[in-house]
């Protein structure tokens, strides 16, 4: 019997070295980075023109950190399409980086997982205190009344970019401050294959941001006081309709914008195909496409000329990137000193300057780079007229469902169908029901 | 066989249309990869305003394409070799032995083909993570985990194809070998396998291609260091813009090895299918 | 053994023969009993570990209220029984309605795509049956899309379907002047057709491959005999080619059906993480339900229903076509 089986065993044994051989090839890739507690892992988000460029930008800072503290940092830059999945994987497995970037609108959702270290007084002390940060940016770090889940790293806000030359040619002397003025300006600009405004109709998150801001302006709230979804409240419908009407009724947006989801609107603006753009810190993006800073102006996002009852003076969401510490980290002290380093003045100045975003700490603004007119505009928006996206765990569902509904509505408009208040309301009502059913 | 006249006329027309349909995207890929960025941002043009190889140089800096390439090569290669080895044993058993559970085995294995990937992606991820925790064998985020996953993806179809192939090899050969005193393993290795070589090649190519192009599982199960090409390509759409010319150049670079390999082994592939799938 | 140095000529088995059971191996009585099982172990273990086990876990997940609150500790997610199923099967609610819509869209997509892929594959296979100059080249060309990695191929389609910068509208609007308005291909109703075309482009070469292989087993004498009997092209196609290809077709169509139905790559690369309503295929629908909103209980319930649906369809198909080896 044994003799007969020997060849079988031999054949099966053939498999094992093969498996082992490929296993051994993995040694260098098996992450974890656990070399004596002096190496931490950092997941950075994609802020620059490419993943590789991001690494080049971050590396000098990280080298400085290593020189100062002796702590080594493994940086991995993760693209946006991947980041949330990777965070999910980390939260689920308890095996993740020590420190990571998160989109600040994810804060409440990620807070709910409990996978990230809450920033209590003591933790804030370790990085120099809570008061150093911009109040506006701090408001987008988690649910109210709870310890923040992250600290602000890069701050951003929406602004209205306009092409100076196109404005002058159309005889527009000042940037619009109301939607009515924006439409009027847009109509003057829309001619000869050029358009008034470019927008990302197929980009879910961006749609949701505008839905939120315009909803606020028209007196809407996405969630009621008890945290229940009400996306179809009248103010939200009116706000979203205002935004959609830029394409549907006012016709100052090229219908092709309905399929834009990969920042084509930025290219259109940079190439002079559209005269205006609503964007967060577009400077570096525009520069990389050959538009220089003196060619465009920046103004706050408009308000309605006569705001309805309950309308708020909000013209941007608090945008930005937060820095979180993984709860399961084995190197909490090292992680905290890294956060301290990343939020220190010098690092903040260097990185925000390169990325074209705003520092998240007050003291960094003393640097001349942040005394320009456009930085001041953004700074004022963040300080006075920006509001954080709803701080409820269902925020990600809100973004997905409302953003998707708007994408579909834009597609309808571009396809020549009428999109009135009823159509907007019915889509939003469906989205509301879906959150309520699933929640 | 004489052909009717209409067939002689229609044949080139229909084949020409099919060729056009096939070629257009390939043409777009080739020419766009040679265009400067401004060409791909403006309206479509058939020919680049100026021919440039810049996209082919830029792709290596925009994302770490070289590393992704090595990962893909290692993962797909290992997955294909392991898959075909395992499949040979299983197919041999199914083809040459009659045993209890034989039909059940065939049906079970083939039915895994209908499992929606989306259903077992997350549980699989959980299992990998927990295996890592319990045994220290890192499956999540490593090439090993991906190899394991991919080899099972191609396994059902490979087994099934090889069963067909083995069935077509006359059993007289086996029996002759048995009379010579060969055990089943030696019979497999020395008699059946050499005859079944085209089938084995076909299955290997199939398994390699399956692994090379997979996106969904790779996007969840890999980390930066084990990332494969298919997922890495997404890196060309970034914060600021889509570098269409680079996307096309990278797609081309990614495609060349598999397309070349496949086309070279095409004959064996067809031969393998002929005897295997087509019993 | 050494006598068998070159593989003997293996004449392909007569095509269309019923799948006969191999002769039972009785040599040596019981001593070989264990061998087949040992040979099967690696395949069995792998399939169990990577497919069956996760599916069971998925079924378990579908009975849990598994939201972002519990991703850190799965086992603590509350048991909701059939609650998730109730939500996704409630056709009055938006979740159930959307799922049904998605299922209908996917079914249409699959039927169209598989049908067209088969038709093109069959046409090309028959037209390439006779040797002529350039045949090899054409065959190679036709097979290329099958070899292209999914992402690379589909992203190219995405590029050429762009409304303002794509090739398709350039040809239709600028060069041929078929319409004045530039149509959209990636949003709205047309997106469904884009999906079908891209899918057919990617899968028909596989049909061609299998059918070419199948045709090679059809003995040429059959055609000669038929010609002598005066049977024309269509007659030969109907009474020789198609019947001979029956076994291939039965498997080919099933495989294409399953691949197309579960296809994730095409819609995901074409449309990104939210597909247009008109092209809302089930795999992306479920992906969005579970991965972008982190409600894995609900997503799993949908997947389980999908699996059940596929099981029923496949089972029915197999019963109707009776391809299974009846021995066991």
Brief summary of the model shown:
Chain A: Pfam families: SBP_bac_1. With 439 residues, chain A is an alpha/beta fold.
- What is the CATH H-level superfamily of the largest domain in chain A? Periplasmic binding protein-like II
Q: What is the 3D form of chain A?
A: globular
The biggest sheet of chain B amounts to: none
* Mean pLDDT over the residues of chain B: 85
Name the beta content range of chain A. 5-15%
In percent, how much strand structure appears in the residues of chain B?
Answer: under 5%
Count the domains of chain A: 2
Structural class of chain A: alpha/beta
What's the CATH C level of the largest domain in chain A?
Alpha Beta
Structural description of this entry:
The complex is a heterotrimer of chains A (439), B (279) and C (328). Chain A is an alpha/beta fold and 439 residues long. Helices cover 47% and strands 13% of the residues of chain A. In chain A, strand 1, helix 2 and strand 2 form a beta-alpha-beta unit. In chain A, helix 9 packs across helix 10, helix 10 packs parallel to helix 16 and helix 16 runs antiparallel to helix 17. Chain A is globular and about 60 Å long. Chain B is globular, with a radius of gyration of 23 Å. In chain B, 62% of the residues are buried. The model of chain B has no long low-confidence stretch (mean pLDDT 85). Chain C is globular. Classes of the chains: A alpha/beta (439), B mainly alpha (279), C mainly alpha (328). Chain A: InterPro entries: Bact_solute-bd_prot1, SBP. Chain A: It comes from uncultured Mycobacteriales bacterium. Chain A: This is ABC transporter, substrate-binding protein (Cluster 1, maltose/g3p/polyamine/iron).
């Amino acid at each position: 019997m044994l003799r007969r089986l020997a060849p079988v065993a031999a054949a099966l044994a053939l498999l094992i070295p093969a498996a082992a051989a490929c296993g051994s090839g993995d040694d260098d890739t098996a992450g974890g980075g656990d070399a004596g507690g002096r190496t931490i892992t950092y997941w950075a988000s994609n802020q620059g023109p490419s993943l590789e460029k991001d690494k080049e930008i971050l590396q000098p800072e990280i080298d400085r950190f290593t020189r100062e503290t002796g702590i080594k940092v493994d940086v991995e830059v993760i693209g946006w399409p991947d980041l949330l999945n990777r965070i999910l994987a980390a939260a689920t497995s308890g095996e993740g980086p020590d420190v990571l970037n998160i989109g600040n609108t994810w804060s409440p959702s990620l807070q709910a997982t409990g996978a990230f270290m809450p920033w209590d007084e003591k933790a804030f002390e370790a990085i120099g205190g809570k008061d150093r940060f911009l109040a506006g940016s701090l408001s987008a770090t988690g649910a109210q009344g709870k310890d923040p889940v992250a600290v602000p790293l890069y701050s951003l806000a929406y602004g209205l970019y306009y092409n100076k030359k196109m404005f002058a040619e159309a005889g527009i002397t000042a940037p619009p401050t109301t939607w009515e003025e924006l439409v009027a300006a847009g109509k003057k600009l829309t001619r000869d294959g050029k358009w008034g405004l470019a927008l990302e109709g197929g980009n879910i998150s961006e749609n949701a941001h505008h839905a939120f801001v315009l909803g606020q302006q028209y007196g809407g709230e996405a969630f009621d006081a008890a945290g229940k979804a009400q996306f179809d409240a009248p103010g939200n419908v009116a706000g979203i309709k205002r935004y959609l009407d830029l394409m549907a009724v006012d016709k100052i947006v090229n219908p092709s914008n309905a399929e834009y989801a990969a920042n084509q609107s930025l290219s259109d603006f940079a190439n002079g195909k559209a005269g205006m753009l609503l964007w967060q810190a577009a400077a570096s993006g525009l520069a990389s496409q050959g538009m220089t800073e003196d060619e465009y102006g920046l103004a706050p996002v408009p308000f309605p000329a006569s705001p309805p009852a309950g309308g708020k003076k909000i013209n941007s969401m608090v945008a930005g990137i937060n820095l979180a510490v993984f709860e399961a980290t084995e190197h909490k002290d090292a992680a905290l000193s890294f956060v301290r380093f990343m939020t220190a003045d010098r690092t903040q100045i260097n990185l925000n300057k390169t990325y074209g975003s705003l520092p998240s700490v007050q003291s960094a603004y003393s640097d001349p780079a942040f005394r320009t007119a456009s930085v001041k505009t953004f700074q004022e928006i963040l300080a006075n007229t920006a509001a954080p996206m709803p701080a409820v765990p269902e925020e990600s569902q809100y973004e997905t469902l409302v953003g998707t509904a708007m994408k579909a509505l834009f597609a309808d408009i571009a396809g020549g169908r009428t999109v009135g208040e009823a159509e907007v309301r019915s889509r939003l009502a469906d989205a509301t029901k879906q959150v309520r059913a699933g929640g | 066989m004489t052909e009717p006249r209409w067939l002689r006329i229609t044949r080139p027309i229909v084949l020409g249309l099919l060729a056009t349909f096939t070629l257009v995207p390939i043409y777009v890929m080739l020419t766009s990869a040679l265009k400067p960025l401004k060409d791909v941002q403006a309206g479509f043009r058939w020919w680049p305003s100026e021919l440039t190889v810049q996209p082919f140089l830029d792709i290596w800096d925009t994302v770490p394409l070289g590393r992704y390439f090595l990962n893909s090569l290692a993962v797909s290669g290992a997955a294909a070799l392991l898959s075909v080895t395992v499949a040979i044993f299983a197919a041999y058993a199914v083809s040459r032995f009659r045993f209890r559970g034989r039909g059940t085995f065939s049906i079970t294995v083939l039915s895994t083909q209908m499992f929606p990937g989306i259903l077992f992606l997350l549980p699989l991820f959980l299992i990998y993570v927990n295996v890592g925790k319990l045994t220290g064998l890192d499956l999540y985020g490593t090439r090993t985990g991906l190899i394991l996953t991919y080899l099972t993806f191609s396994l059902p179809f490979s087994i099934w194809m090889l069963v067909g192939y083995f069935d077509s090899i006359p059993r007289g050969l086996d029996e002759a070998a048995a009379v010579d005193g060969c055990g089943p393993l030696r019979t497999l290795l020395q008699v059946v396998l050499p005859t079944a070589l085209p089938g084995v090649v076909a299955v290997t190519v199939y398994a390699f291609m399956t692994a090379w192009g997979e996106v969904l599982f790779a996007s969840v199960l890999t980390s930066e260091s084990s990332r494969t090409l298919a997922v890495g390509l997404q890196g060309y759409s970034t914060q600021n813009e889509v570098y269409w010319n680079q996307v096309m150049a990278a797609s081309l670079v990614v495609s060349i090895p598999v397309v070349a390999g496949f086309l070279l082994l095409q004959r064996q592939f067809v031969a393998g299918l002929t005897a295997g799938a087509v019993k | 053994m050494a006598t068998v140095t070159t593989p003997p000529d293996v004449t392909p088995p007569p095509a269309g023969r019923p799948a006969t059971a191999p002769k039972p191996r009785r040599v040596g009585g019981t001593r070989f009993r264990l061998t087949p099982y040992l040979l099967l172990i690696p395949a069995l273990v792998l399939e169990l570990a990577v497919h069956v086990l996760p599916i069971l876990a998925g079924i378990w997940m579908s009975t849990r209220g598994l939201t972002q609150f519990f991703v850190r500790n799965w086992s603590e997610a509350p048991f909701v029984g059939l609650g998730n199923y109730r939500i996704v099967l409630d056709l009055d609610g938006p979740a159930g309605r959307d799922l049904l819509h998605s299922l209908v869209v996917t079914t249409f997509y699959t039927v169209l795509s598989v049908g067209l892929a088969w038709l093109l594959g069959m046409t090309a296979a028959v037209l390439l049956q006779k040797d002529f100059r350039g045949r090899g080249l054409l065959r190679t060309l036709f097979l290329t899309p099958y070899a292209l990695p999914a992402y690379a191929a589909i992203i190219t389609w995405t590029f050429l379907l762009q409304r303002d910068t794509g090739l398709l509208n350039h040809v239709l609007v600028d060069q041929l002047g078929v319409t004045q308005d530039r149509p959209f291909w990636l949003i709205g109703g047309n997106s469904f057709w884009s999906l079908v075309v891209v899918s057919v482009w990617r899968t028909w070469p596989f049909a061609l491959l299998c059918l070419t292989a199948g045709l090679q087993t059809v003995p040429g004498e059959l055609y000669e005999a038929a010609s002598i009997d005066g049977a024309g092209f269509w007659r030969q196609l109907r009474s020789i080619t198609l019947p001979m290809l029956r076994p291939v077709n039965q498997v080919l169509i099933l495989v294409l059906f399953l691949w197309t139905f579960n296809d994730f790559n095409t819609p995901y690369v074409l449309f990104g993480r939210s597909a247009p309503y008109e092209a809302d295929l089930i795999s992306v629908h479920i992906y969005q339900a579970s991965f972008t909103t982190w409600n894995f209980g609900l997503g799993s319930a949908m997947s389980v229903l999908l699996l059940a649906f596929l099981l029923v369809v496949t089972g029915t198909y197999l019963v109707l076509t009776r391809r299974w080896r009846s021995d066991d």
